[in-house]
Amino acid sequence: MSRLPILIASCLFLSSLTAAVVTAAESDTPTAYSLLQSYNFPVGILPKGVVAYDLDTTTGKFHAYFNDSCSFNLVGSYQLNYKSTISGYISENKLKKLTGVKVKVLFLWLNIVEVIRNGDEMEFSVGITSANFAIQEFLESPQCGCGFECKDSKLDMIERIPFLSSS
């Protein structure tokens, strides 16, 4: 009969230890944004609001998840749309076979299929054409709905090069 309190105390200790290990493991997991940086990409190629992601480190296959789709306009430029799940393959300086990210060029929605970092430039490809942008334009993540024009955004104006150059 005297073993019951010890058993209860042991169960409580083990459950609190398990909770502490799970919390520590979760806090050690890098965010999607810090993961991008580990592959030499700026955080701003991904809008704020990623709620989860998964990555197969052997193949580079990833998925990033938002609560909902995410759209915003860039100042004097393009409209972007991220589906609630985006995926592709990541490696150092390269995102390929992207799905779930579109850009509106003139009146057409085109899938962004590849992003390559080349020094201080980012090249975004829609397959038939690509455009280069300075990496400084991606140091901060845009917000769904308002992009970089949000009241809490540190960047007031982003000038873009037209997405009409051929690759």
Automatic annotation (TrEMBL):
GO biological process, one term: negative regulation of gene expression
InterPro entries per record: At5g01610-like, DUF538
Secretion signal span: 1-19
Coiled coil spans: none
UniProt KW Transmembrane keyword: no
GO cellular component: cytosol; nucleus; plant-type vacuole; plasma membrane
Keyword Signal: yes
Annotated keywords: Signal
This protein's name: AT4g02370 protein
Organism (species): Arabidopsis thaliana
Lineage of source species: Eukaryota, Viridiplantae, Streptophyta, Embryophyta, Tracheophyta
